[in-house]
Amino acid sequence: MKLDSKIPEGPISDKWTDYKDHLKLVAPNNRPKIDIIVVGTGLAGSSAAASLGEMGYNVKAFCFQDSPRRAHSIAAQGGINAAKNYQNDGDSTFRLFYDTIKGGDYRAREANVHRLAEVSSNIIDQCVAQGVPFARDYGGLLDNRSFGGTQVQRTFYAAGQTGQQLLLGAYSALSRQVGLGRVELFSRHEMLELVKVDGKARGIIARNLVTGELERHSAHAVVIATGGYGNVYFLSTNAMGSNVTAGWKIHKQGAAFANPCFVQIHPTCIPVHGTNQAKLTLMSESLRNSGRIWVPKKKEDAQAIREGKLKAAQIAEEDRDYYLERKYPSYGNLAPRDISSRAAKEVCDAGHGIEANDTNEGVYLDFSSEIQNKGRQSAYAKGNHHPTDEEITKLGKQWLEEKYGNLFTMYQKITDENPYETPMKIYPAVHYTMGGVWVDYNLQSTIPGCFVAGEANFSDHGANRLGASALMQGLADGYFVLPYTVSNYLADEIRTGKIATDTQEFADAENRVKESIDKFINNNGTKTVDHFHKRLGLIMWNKVGMGRNEAGLTEAISEIAALKEEFYKDVYVPGSSDELNQELEKALRVADFIDLGQLMAMDALQRKESCGGHFREEYQDAEGETLRDDENFSFVSAWEYMGYDITKEILNKEELKYEFIKIAARNYK
């Protein structure tokens, strides 16, 4: 497999502008002759479908939810980055570019990241024009807050529901195109196969999830925007329907899968409560602006808290270990996610965890200091220069409620604890996947005509994503990149004509899907799909999770292979294929997760270094920080599918070249 990243020549600040100036175009009168399929209607998919429809193309948009508004993008809470420098604290396009490269531990593609930083400001303008209700300061200007891995305030937000508000903006743009007839929306449809004709992506096979009917849909280009694969771990912050199927199907058709081992563990999630739990809940990273993270210094105090004999408020200030502030004073509680997550694991492994669960894993996120500070400031702003303690506390809680009210309410509903009165309990959990389908500078996979956007591709975040950059990438790809690069590809398609679906290629693709479905429906197994998914998740979390080592990864590869054989022999899928059958849906998705999980372990095993979210225990310095090997591993691992046995996949490498940033040891101290 040949990997051609198609990175333009020239100074990095000019690459995208010069490149756009020389891309081929499709004239407006020719666009109605061309069909485009967009799979996924989250931020990347909805913005892409809306933009391409607005340009005049015929677009078919697919989502497995009953509405695009249910895409997992709504779960993003904290904000979206943009280099507007509203706070006058020294931000710039270059600083956003640099922070993203550094945050990704120098494992992202330089040119793509700079383009992302360039278009970030346009995203905010676009969303404001759509009516997204971003928070504003006292003067009416858009407000900002900080996120991990930065020393500036560049995150625009809408309380604790930024993803939902941005998705409503994109959905409104998409709905307008649906109303004009330029976009045809297929809800409750899941893509189960990519169709190639003469090597090019020419359509998909989709299953109507209500009737079970298999449908053929053709197009001149296909865009995959189906999010990440965090649910390979079973327990994650992802919506339970989130899956890797679309990305894996195109991988099996020839699209390289890049950096699958790069997975983000988010430091501020509500801890696991029990073995029957199927979903984890994220508490926004924005809370780290106001909360201080700590554990008891004394193990006996931590044990007493777990046993219910002590409460957090009873631990004296001098007996608290604010470990992020201690270890990373320059960034403190806003250290990057991978570093903050490992630090939490470290103190819990040492016996200082405060949650009374099976593993004693949990730390505090405490807002008491912020309540006092903001309460005093609010009192002064009202002219009260000698407020009582009660007045300070009341005003401080009011300030927190205005900033984070819905997050605090959500936490209380889930845990039955009041976070205004007692610290939140948090612990790291699987959140975002930096790996994904390999794409070039045009966001095109190794299959001509098959483009991949948002979290489904690998291109922008390296080995660790900075907070508030997921929304930025999804909208950048959909609004400001794909309209140019897809058009460049389609310029050669204006004479192609309608793609027929009654061809052998479509029939073969449909038969592959039928065979897969029939295999599950007719299997005489005894165990549920969730039984196998949970077992896969335990292997992944324990051996391909926050800490990885050669022995564990080697075991994971063989254990997943054995699990795969057992899965196909003993899984039980009730019902039939010609009806609404959610167990069948899950079985098809878990089959892909099992293959992916094995590839993730293989990718982690070959990467003999620690970088970002990939922490190999053999490669750490004396202080427990990551040890990168830039001489041997400064590359993107792009895996090539070779059949049923995943261990036969071929590793291809795209060398990472840094021309405009100096590679250095990542230091947040």
Q: What would you say about this model in short?
A:
The protein has 17 helices and 19 strands. It has a 5-stranded parallel sheet, with helices on both faces. Strands 11-15-14-12-13 form a 5-stranded antiparallel sheet. The model has no long low-confidence stretch (mean pLDDT 97).
What does this structure look like?
A hairpin with a 5-residue loop joins strand 7 (200-208) and strand 8 (214-218). The longest helix has 27 residues, at 389-415. The strands form five sheets. Strands 5-2-1-9-17 form a five-stranded parallel sheet, sandwiched between helices. It has a five-stranded antiparallel sheet with strand order 11-15-14-12-13. It has 17 helices and 19 strands. By secondary structure, the protein is of the alpha+beta class. The chain is globular. Helix content is 38%, strand content 14%. The mean pLDDT is 97.
What is the overall shape?
Answer: globular
- Number of helices, counting only DSSP H or I runs of 4 residues or more: 17
**Major sheet summary line:** 5 strands, parallel
Q: Write down how many β-strands occur, each being a DSSP E stretch of 2 or more residues.
A: 19
* Helix-and-strand structural type: alpha+beta
- Strands across the major sheet, in which order? 5-2-1-9-17
**Overall helicity:** 25-40%
Topology:
Layout: H1 12-21, E1 35-39, H2 43-55, E2 58-62, E3 80-81, H3 93-103, H4 110-129, E4 155-156, H5 162-179, E5 183-186, E6 189-197, E7 200-208, E8 214-218, E9 221-224, H6 245-252, E10 257-258, E11 263-269, E12 292-296, H7 299-306, E13 320-321, H8 323-327, H9 337-352, E14 363-366, H10 368-381, H11 389-415, E15 424-433, E16 436-437, E17 450-452, H12 470-490, H13 504-521, H14 529-543, H15 550-570, H16 582-606, H17 630-633, E18 635-640, E19 650-655
